[in-house]
Amino acid sequence: MVEAQSWTTRRSSNPRLETSVDIPTTPTGEVRYGTSNNIFAALSITSVVSPTILTALIIASWYLSNIGVLLLNKYLLSFYGFRYPIFLTMLHMISCTFYSLIAIRWFQIVPFQQISSRKQFFKIFALSAIFCFSVVCGNTSLRYLPVSFNQAIGATTPFFTAIFAFLITCKKESAEVYFALMPVVFGIVLASNSEPLFHLFGFLMCVGSTAGRALKSVVQGLLLTSDSEKLHSMNLLLYMAPMAAAILLPFTLYIEGNVLGKTLEKAKSDSFMVFLLIGNATVAYLVNLTNFLVTKHTSALTLQVLGNAKAAVAAVVSVMIFKNPVTAMGISGFGVTIMGVVLYSEARKRSKVTVH
Fold this sequence. Notes:
Blueprint: H1 39-43, H2 45-48, H3 51-79, H4 85-106, H5 118-141, H6 147-154, H7 157-169, H8 175-180, H9 182-193, H10 200-223, H11 233-256, H12 259-269, H13 271-297, H14 300-322, H15 328-355
Helix pairs in contact: 3-13, 3-14, 4-11, 4-13, 5-10, 5-11, 6-14, 7-10, 9-15, 12-13, 13-14, 14-15
């Protein structure tokens, strides 16, 4: 168990919180919702900005929000001395709840959907619990591992997804798909053997976080299968965020002590901390909002490709800012992993075309 009261930041380590909910794929095109009379339609943004420029701005916002939450979390946890990662994650979930209500009920970016049954409620609660497990493991790992290495391990999510899909649903992929996963694992082996700041416990926690994200995506597809239970990604975030906050509350009280009282006491003497926490939580929600918008204006496959590139960008930015040492072998391992993920995506796409 990690004791938060003795939480210290080692030199060259890069604490960062993983706050982005694994939003399910969303088909593109306005045909999903038809024309709506929401506030965005009234503004007629596309009549002022060309679709190409609008899409580029949305992608840029997605990258900036991801990198922004990385920098803010690093500053809060390391330089500013706010050493309560679980509590900070809980604030992010509260923020996602608040902003999701505004986005859906006021701006009406997507139609509001209600939970239809108690059974569906418990299914969403189960997904929230898996998500919390992934976040806690990821946050713990970042005490011991640099962000660049964390991003490399996170790129192996397709490998764990394929494993859980086979174990839980007995779904078998083609031989080409499984073959494409080999460089994903091989790249991490190379990166691990040459990582200057390798830490076994941090590595295991990061693998647990990656496996948790993969498990959530598989369980989500298994639980929310019927048309009556399917929720739009933004509605799912609206319900998962408060559940995740409720799950994290006892953990932050048990592990991090009287964190709320300490935060309020520090806020009285330093109002800038309030600004930092609000800004940090807001950017955390923007990660999820821009994730949805990128999928809406491009495609799920484009989002996956951009996500692979984002992992590389985040790794480069972390090295530039946090100055953690890297080796040529480590860079090569990360590159092999990303190449494997790209091959896996292409193999999955060809496999689906063959089936149809």
